[in-house]
Model the fold of this input.
Amino acid sequence: MTAQAEPAERPKATAEGRARRVPRPRSGIWVVAGKEMADHLLSLRFLILLALIALATLGAVYAAAGGLRSVAPEATGTPALFLRLFTVSVEEGQIPPFFVVVGLLAPLLGIALGFDAVSGERSAGTLPRLLSQPIHRDAVINGKFVAGLAVIAVILASVTLLVAGFGILRLGIAPTLEEVLRIAAWLAVAILYAGVWLAFSLLCSVLVRRAATAAFLAIAAWLVLTLFAARLTGIVADALAPVPANPTFEEVLANAELEQALSRLSPSTLFSEATLVLLTPQARSAGFIFEFQLVGALPDPLPLGQSLLIIWPQVVGLLALAVACFGAAYVAFMRQEIRA
Amino acid sequence: MTAASPTFADRPAVQAPVIRALGLTKRYGDKIAVDRLDLEVRRGEVFGLLGPNGAGKTTTILMLLGLSEPSEGRAQVVGFDPTRDPLAVKRVVGYLPDNVGFYGDLTGRENLRFTCRLNGLPDAEADSRIAAVLEQVGLVGAADDAVETYSRGMRQRLGLADVLVKDPDVVILDEPTIAIDPEGVAELLALIRRLATERGMAVLLSSHLLHQVQQICDRVAIFVEGRVVALGSPAQLAERLATGSSLVEVGADGDPEHVRTVLEVLPGVRRVERDASDARLWLVSGVGDVRRSVAEAAGRGELMVWHLRRRGDELDEVYRRYFAEAEGRAAERARERDDGAG
Done:
């Protein structure tokens, strides 16, 4: 070591020098988030997810556009035709529409970006070093959540724009302002939905030491809530509110309402109901509508504000789930011992 | 760096100890990890916290950093309470954790830059500091390689760079020499010693390998089962244990009975016996330094001595004995508990 090795402008230990070393308040979270985002965007994981979602959604929209073109003569005059690009299922449901693809893959996005967020730092031995820097402890977990959500927003927004652009080319019609706003609102809900899963997988990564176990736990929850939930709620509803051989209207209704209430515990139900109402302006309700309720109603599409009012409970439900999962992850992380 | 370096002299003199622990205690359920620890570390001092694995060294360090809350007692680092004001402590303390980890896909330089950003350093200043510390730890050549290609020793040196880039007043190193080759250990320790002396930093290092760190420590605390069983300079500890008597290994050629007779009558010698672990050696115990008597006998031609070594004056031996004593007491306590229970 020589005199030259000494940094040229090492801060003098004067009051001035000391003051310069004090970090700007609340900067920790943005430093962590910035690094996490850079990590995500450069990772193979990000490319795979983007490719997977882009392929699946483009396939769906290509089919939907083809379907719409073939029925173009009848479709003329259909309100909000452009939105049907996102919702139409062709060939008897062989190819799922765009919103179903996103509903299925958004959880995967959240899980993939969060399952090793904390346990990865722990197993790499970087957590004690990170936490011994002058940042608040919650800056780590907040930064990771913010970065994950930002990456989710980037992926979902770019895929949606890609699909919309593709649709304009194929269909030759441009969306109206109302339709653009509806798509933007739907995009926000989709990001929130993926955020629920991001928060849940973050919770898994705090509680479970092994990243593989955490990923498995999160994927198991996703499978149960997304794929099997419909069967399970049916079974539970039949057990609690049985429908006899010659049911009355009230008995059938009680069974159906219970089943719907149960299924609304799952974020995937909340998301698909919100999607349905946002992307189908004609939809009057996310629940049941009886014929007598429609008497005298004009079959006109609802304005966006009215649709938003209908799905407001669903949006709040998703928000509550995200807050609950993230809150649990936050508290667990703050209380956890640094050492294994 | 020379003695004329302005950095040490410019720092405000801190009269009080830089690290201070008062009755620091940590309990996990029924288990006591750290038991009423008192210690003080001053500026420019290298303090060794020495003890076997599981003695509570890392727990102590985490409490000093505010990363773990003490069950009782309190700590003070550079005048701040780590529990109440962890950020103030972390701003001036550099910590090299046991088994330090880095982001493997980032380069060494990028890892250091991240640390600088977390410390709120402007990028321009960070870059010049990074260049300087990389040179200090000898990693300039590998600075732009991904850390996953680094050897264990290089990671450790990068860890030291990571600590120094903050320009800390206090450096805490947890097992800094573990898993590095002997040459690397010597280099690393020399670097640590130099930093403490020249920059006037306080260094607290923990280790279970005494012979490695004893030469650079001004004071050591021997830490067994969460308690300090001995505290002082390495020489003081050795003296306290020796209590005026000495134990010497002697290897001598010739008829064993003759050798024994000669050794037994030397001045100061109390007892002569065969070494149980090496039959060619004699263990000679006596008052004062018996080596002198043996050497004089060899000089007179009474013995053909080929080996002469005092046991018990090296810190390893000190440590082994303290450790054995503490273990013996622990075993005794355990027996008492069992008897009480039975």
